[in-house]
Design brief:
Elements: E1 2-15, E2 18-23, E3 26-32, H1 39-51, E4 53-56, E5 62-65, H2 66-69, E6 72-77, H3 99-117, E7 122-123, E8 130-145
Parallel strand pairs: 3-6, 6-7
Antiparallel strand pairs: 1-2, 1-3, 1-8, 4-5
Amino acid sequence: MRIVIQRVGHASVTIEGQVRSAIDKGYLILLGIAEEDTEDDIRWLVNKITGLRIFDDEEGMMNRSIMDVGGEILVVSQFTLMASYKKGNRPSWIHAARHELSIPLYHGFCDALSEALGKPVSTGEFGADMQVELLNDGPVTLCIDTKNKE
C-alpha cells in the first residue's frame, strides 16, 4: 500500500457536482493498493498514521498526533499512486491491484482506520471520477509505502 498523506485545514470530495464528504482539520489520505498488499499492510499503515506526530504543539513543534488533536480523516482511493513510469511517457498501471482485491482492502483500511481513530473516517467513492479540494496546512505532505517499513 502506498499513501500520500496531507495535513489539511479542510478537505472535500465532490462527485457529479455533489459534495460526498468534507472534513475540517486533519488528514487527506490518497491510498494506492498493489496486487501483493494484505491485511498486514493495513494494520501497519493504520498504526503509522495514527501515531504520526505532525501537528504542532503549544511551542509550534510537530509533536502531536491526529489522536491528540481530535482531527478528522478523509480517504480517497488513488490507483495512479501505483504507476510504473520507467518506459516511455505513458504510465502503466500493472502494479495496481485488480478490483476484486483492491475494493475489500480499501474498505478494510477505512474500517480499521475508523476503529483506531474512534470515529468515522470520511471517504470518496471507489472508482468514481472525483474532484478533491484541500487546504494543505504547512504544507505538510508525506509519502508512505508499506514496502519500505524499515
